[in-house]
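User: Assemble these into one structure.

Assistant: Restating your components, then the assembled model:
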Amino acid sequence: MTQQTNKTLQALHWTGSSLKVLDQRQLPDTIVYDDYQDAAGVTEAIASMRVRGAPAIGIAAAYGVALSVMAHTAKDPGHWQEKVAADIAMLAKSRPTAVNLFWALAQIEALLAQHPENPVFEVVARAEKIHADDIAANFRMGELGADLLGGVKGVMTHCNAGALATGGYGTALGVIRSAVKRQPLNVYAGETRPWLQGARLTVWELAQDGIPSTLVADSAAAWLMKSGAIEWIIVGADRIAANGDTANKIGTYSLAVLAKRHGVKVMVVAPTTTLDWTIKDGSQIEIEQRNPSELLPVCYLGEGSLVSAWNPVFDVTPAELITAIVTERGIAYHPGEYGLRGLQDAV
Ligand code: MRU
């Protein structure tokens, strides 16, 4: 069981025998949970973005392996290992950029290696722990990030890095939640084209919690910064390289460039499960390209159409454009200058 974190609906709910996934494609108009009982279903839920956001993807995948282990140890006690390995490989192909997915799968793989007989209890417990630890990390980051916002009047966020994208409470939105408990704060959210995570999810999620926000078109960001209304951009992350380069929702890089021009600071909020120590810098991060149909009006979709679309859904913000990376283990200030000093060994 996971603790209830706020009034917002949770993205994931583990029943003990299935994973209920809030279908975020239908928000905010329709609230519907789909019930998944196998790893193939969970893979589909991630690939189709019913569940999205780096930490939530990792948690869902962990539960996906738990479902796989439960089913295959019961059906085929002699050969469950190969079947579970195939399910893990399938889950790993669901989306490429968020490192939390691969981190969670690696955690469970290591656990399976330690429990070759019947690991159901251990795997379920580990998936639940990954879920609970993520919520705890978000609360900690919320406080640490809010410490940086003393006296600040306005912030802007991008995409949805909230309860819907995590185990609960959120990363960027966790900081905003913690900050508004301490002080008044004007919160601006960019629409986040083309999938509209900002317009459909972020402002809705904040409203569920009684937090007012102002929606802006992505293209209004420069003018908003020029107006002096915001002092910080606060975003989440999908993968942070060892030098602090950060992959996040497409448009984050544009915001960071604009922020530099306008003297606005950039805060990246992410649990240490989003740090990828195996890659030196952001050039090694695979950027997911999604189907052009997510971008193109229907009239351009037919065969022989002269209009195509380029639809990268993440970009990489160089560390030098980031003011602070907030994790549950502490804050890396000016990562472009100092890297992620202290975070690897911090407890
Ligand atoms: O394509 P999405 O909606 O999965 O992208 C989500 C983001 O880019 C988030 O900012 C990131 O995963 C951090 S969520 C705490």
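Residues 52-55, 98, 159, 161, 165-166, 171, 197, 235-238, 248-249, 313 surround MRU (CB under 6 Å).
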